[in-house]
Fold this protein.
Amino acid sequence: MTRYLTVIVSVFVILAPSLAAQRIPSPQQYFGFEMGSDRRLANWDELTSYYEELAERSQRVIVDTLGTTTTGQPFVMLTITSPENHARLAELQDIQMKLADPRMISSESELNQLFDDGKAVAMITHGIHSTEVGPSQMAARLAYTMASSNEERILEILENVIFLQIPSLNPDGLQWVNDWYNEHVRTQFEAAPLPWLYHFYTGHDNNRDWYAFTQDETILTVGAQNDWHPQIVHDVHQMGGNGARIFFPPYIEPWEPNIDPALTTAVSQLGTYMAAELTAQGKKGVVVNAQYDAFTPARAYMHYHGAARILSETASAQIASPTNIPPEALGPGRNFDASQRSWNFPDPWEGGAWGLPDIVDYQYSGALALLTNAAKNRRFWLENFYGVNKRAVDKWDAWPDAWVIPGNQENQTGVKYALRSLVMSEVEVAEAQEAFSVDGVDFPAGSYVIPMNQPYAGYANSMLEVQHYPDLREYPGGPPQRPYDVTAHTFGYLLDFEAVEVEGNLRVELSEPITAPDFDFQLPAHLNGVEAPRVAIYKSWQEPMPAGWQRWVLDQYDMAYDTLHDADIHSGALDDYDVLLFQAQDVNSIKNGFRLGELPRQYTGGLGDQGVQAVGSFVRNGGRVIAIEAATEFIAELFDLNISNLTSGLPNTEFYIPGSILRLELDSASEINEGMRDEISAWYWRSSMAYEVDDPRIRIVGRYGQGSPLLSGWVLGGEHIAGEAAILEADIGEGSLVLFGFQPNYRAQTVATWPLLFNAMRK
Ligand SMILES: [Zn+2]
């Protein structure tokens, strides 16, 4: 009898998981359509409910709400692994923390035990760019497979990998884009663009925030990475539709030099493996070693924290609507040609129909290939991760012994901003308890010291040293090879503070590592109180990203301002303001906006004649307009200013500045420059301008540096703008204009030039 009972119990135990699995609804059952169906998009409300359901019904899945997004949506992460691993998750997390910080490991035998017992930790993040709709739909399919499948391949992953899945890095945008699409599908506005930024402040720039950490979603994701220190982080994106079908690493040159070489090779092997699996499955158009470089840490937090960053980019359709790409549209990209077979693009796609089902299929296969590699090479990933962190703890020869940020610097906002970034990146920063000197340089008590023998020292070095971007050409003597993003991120210049590298033993008592200070934003006196100017920002239905970043900065300062749409300006709203700001937006976009028929009528038309006239009257009657970069052309046209952009028409072989930091010389007589040194650093990129001025109404109050204006990054033909006009002031009627040729608020990082903007906001 006893024996009989035992048998019954065993049978029950074996059957229980598969019975549970049968109760897990597939996306098809839950949503009523397969993830990755033409013209069908699940929104965030539905997706989060589905993930809750998976967690309830599968012993492999837990779902955590890490916090809330900018507009208050839940921001969630799934932790997916075998039930056995779930039962010892805290222990596995401890192993990971020790491998991340080799100083915590006391012996060779302990280390080997950690390698034996640990699991590879792989994070996949989906849908940061909300109009790239595939990844966040694919996320549900992938989660379902991992929760329910008993295929050998999946069981191997579950046993060897802790899979952290962030099914949307931008839930706000997912909800907006998918609701907008679903509202307009099968109407004349099917696949029409969303007429506002799909991240409340940053739009598409939301993946350029991975060292400034300004946005809630970035902070939550970085927090999750710091809690686990994954060995692999895969960010799933989409790209334009006229090239390869999917990209995986290796990246093209350059790599940022503080990234460990063993991560470069690990990234390259993993990306190549993913490409190999897809190509072997018969998926055409897979490219590696093309398009995307690995220079800026703004997109690559993981590369400074022991993890391989795998970017994948799949060709887009029209949101969720299918497209048809004619073969002749497929042409050259960077380091490959989509119309020709090559080693890094061995099986070209010939063109034809392409849609969301293809996108989700490719992305799903890529994600499974990545998890398979992590499972099969579990020990490699752990050992390599440890090796990267160990070399950092031992300090690279290329790094100084320490960085010191002198105390008592004038610009505390910049210092706090930098310290916050370093500490949030788990860089250990200590405060000197007394004055000290190294190599004859004196530092006051309260200086901040960053010893460089620590796990994430590479991050500190990358942010504190001055970047010099290599002069890369498409062929010898040819045009510059366009960097994927910008070429400089030197914190000292962007944030306007001093950091000093020092060698040798520091004889000074240090505090325990400090905690992250908050931004130290304090509004200038003239923008406070009843006398403060009433400020408005123009808010187009094609709002440029810098306008969103502008709103973020002003919100951090708790500054009162309003945003004005075209309709507000048409109905006389400008009467209630003293200052109107136009962020970088071109003339046509400001004046005409979306065309009638392109979007529903209320989002079309731009400022139009009526709005343009209202802006003209606003200034003539005493208002002040501040305009930045392209918007200065709109203002120049409106008031017939005799100015021109000195660099327009120059070929890029002669003049090229793709995101660099330049010297700026300021005229101390202007109130715009009040409280500023006469030489500071400024952000110049492809959309910036240097002016030729021939107009008696205009005063030049800032110029790009004489000689070579470059401080950090890459400049070709700097002599074309050296000493030329960068900031202009003009009086028009009763009012006035301030024009910036460069971007004084680049991605909320140019603390150095914010005071110019604040000073410009005057009655
Ligand atoms: Zn993207």
